[in-house]
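Step 1: inspect the first sequence and its tokens.
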Amino acid sequence: MSTYDVAVIGSGPGGYVAAIRCAQLGMKTAIIEKYSTKGGTCLNVGCIPSKALLDSSHHYEDALKHFEEHGIELTGDVKLNLEKMMERKASVVDQTTKGIDFLMDKNKIDSYQGIGSFEDKTHIKIEGEETTTIEAKHIIIATGSKPASLPFIDIDKERIITSTEALKLKEVPKHMLVIGGGVIGLELGQVYKRLGAEVTVIEYMDRIIPTMDAAQSKELTKVMKKQKVKFAVSHKVTSVENTGDEVVVKATDKKDKEVEFKGDYCLVSVGRRPFTDGLNAEAAGVKMNDRGQIEVDKHLKTSADNIYAIGDVVKGAMLAHKAEEEGVFVAETIAGQKPHIDYNLIPGVVYTWPEVASVGKTEEQLKEDKVEYKSGQFPMRALGRSRASGDTDGFVKILSDKETDEVLGVHMVGARAADLIAEAVTAMEFRASAEDIARMSHAHPTYSEAVKEAALAATEDRPIHT
């Protein structure tokens, strides 16, 4: 029987990063993955393929609608080759997952393919082409999540689909119904809207992206309505039925009136659930809560003293980069170091165009917590860089403490917001004030100037360019 210092169950962003960090710290490490490719949901059927389709569909939309204004004239019709687009997406996924294999070999991590289940707190049975058992002093559970659904919905994977199926459709829907106005629904809804589908988003809450700042929700709704996406907020879905070539969704609106929606595809994107099926966690003494999450302490240690859990199987935002931070945190904890994670400073991003990004407290949270704050906001349309690229939608908003001027939250909608948010995270990690950011030189012309201008607006209400 092979023995290890650490065994990691699951090779998604949390798992493979944890394994690499353990190996870097001198521990003999194994990683177990039930699928034939590593990378988990993120690399295979999540972050990476969805961004590939978002980029490809963005190019297609630009060719259809925006090339001419740049002086680019196309001879003949612009044609969509969906098969080719899907092939490119698959190629991106293949290159990325093979990169994980390379990293495992480089760091001398032993890989096992099969379903890992606990025999006890130190032994894992791996059922693949062959069945084997390994022993590990420490074990990290990183088995991720699966798409959630509603109890009355039958996901048939043909007309009623999850994000997994939406990433490999063989035709562009005529009318895609999207249940859930969160990150996944909006991103994939925008992909298929660009490719020619009619898209209707049905959301239970009174606004889309309801966990983000309300100003972001309002701005993204406005922009996506301009893109002809339809929204039905404050609608509670009551039934979803595949009638053959059509899907019928029934819902009640805020006046408790029944409303019916019809489309040829229905994407169910109501969140994700922790995936621990087949883990046999009870054999190791690992406890779970009633939401299916593994219970952990502040060190991410489970009720079994040698077993840790990270990523989507524990509480908190289901984000790849949150799982990565937790993977490093656990590896360094096992090695006897004193790492830390500030969960308030894990950024959130929606990869629509314009992009949406946030870090820290929203305005609604500050009001709820009765924190006195200042707010500074700057519109992207006032930037020379935005006008040059034609990306004038959006804004940057900075919230800072009324007394100390410490930055408490940064919320943005705009071109490259997913990248711009890193400046805000850095500033907040070092507990910068809005004035600190305002006095930093930002290259001109760039989108990042909006961050400086928002900081100026938050300090003394003195933005230069509005």
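Step 2: inspect the second sequence and its tokens, then contrast the two.
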Amino acid sequence: MFTSIAIIGRPNVGKSTLFNKLTKSRKAIVSDYSGLTKDRNYGYLVFGDQKSLIIDTGGIAQDNSILKEDIAEQAWIAAEEAGLIIFIIDGSENLIKEDLDILTRLRKLDKKFITVLNKSDKKTDSIVKEDISKMGIKEFFEISAEHSRNISDLRSFIKESLPKNKFETPDGKKIAVLGRPNAGKSTFINKFINEDRLIVSEVAGTTIDAISIPFSVGGSDFVFIDTAGIRKGYKTSHKIEYFSYVRAMHSVEECDIVIFICDAQEGLVDQDLKIINMVCETGKPILIALNKIDLLSKKQRDNIYETKRAQSNFVSDFIKLEISGIKGLGFKRLFRITNTLIDRAQKKYSTSSLNKLLNKFVTQSAPPSVGGRQLKLKHIHFAGINPTTFVIHSNQDKKIPQNYKKYLENSFRSALKLESIQLKIIFRKSENPFESKINKLTDRQVKKRQRLIKYIKNRK
């Protein structure tokens, strides 16, 4: 059982609005136009250090059009795989046949679901509460996703309703292996552990599940998690490929590092960048391994790094290694760096060491002025891992120039050797400790001050 959460309902009941509120993002396009969401949207619902994959689906409608049938089928695929389902009903309208049909099929899935009445802020003569009560639903949430009404209560209820059992893997440092189909993931693992544990085939997509393979090196325990290749168009493709995607992303959530296997013959393609971006959202470190390097000449190898995608700022911070899964080339260096990155990604930094670095960087490049005030960076402290997070306390937390933020990020990344590790720097405005002790002027003093200012201006 996975902790995926699917949001389902008929068109225009507020699924995408709720998705954006729960994920605290704007990934899903919101409009009054019915049926705008066609494909599934993915995001993360975060409860402290716990994350759950949440899926916004298209509206399930009674329509004979092929498009509407495909959208509905995609929604039910997400519901079948989910550990928890949020069933949304328009609370400003009475129940209609589409709502009842969804409820009937939902009960046949035999899964836990939460009934949510959205748009409860609208004043109507709807008897939807009586209707759902007659259908046997005694507990439900009344919310207004658009105006954030009761959203925090819903989040708390979702947290308590999530399945307690997690994706189980053996003990040890966990390494998830991701990539497109036929990039050589299973071949790489078989060669690395020197066993034929995984099926290898020329046919792309042989692996369809996340498979855990424990092994030991130098007295330390490790676990490889081989995942299915994530194809282009996985959102609308076959049910098995969608399941594979969900399992792959849960494997990423459970792992300590991701080794992204790329076919060196093709180089980094758009689908590779999309997968890497999805991993970045989890905050896990990423190591890019260019596989099948034995099939390339030296000139072809050099060309890999000269492409626009390889030189983009997005992948410039990730370590790239050349390997051959079938011949075992580059394995020792790959494992040595992987082990080092796991330790660095989980390292906790002392406040004193971070403040020394911050003072050094500020001395080398003074902070700019923000809104006419000099930016003062007072102190910094460590706030967590995956991603490695630092909090800088300053006299400003907004309107700080992006180029100075990037300067600090690059400086810390270089000084702490955080290549391939996600780094997040948060700016927080410091409170004035003497604010409560400041003497406030009386009305009489304020008027006197205004007379003095006026007198001085007149003299000029």
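Step 3: confirm your contrast with the notes below.
Residues 173-345 form a domain with the Rossmann fold fold (CATH 3.40.50.300). The longest helix spans residues 443-459.
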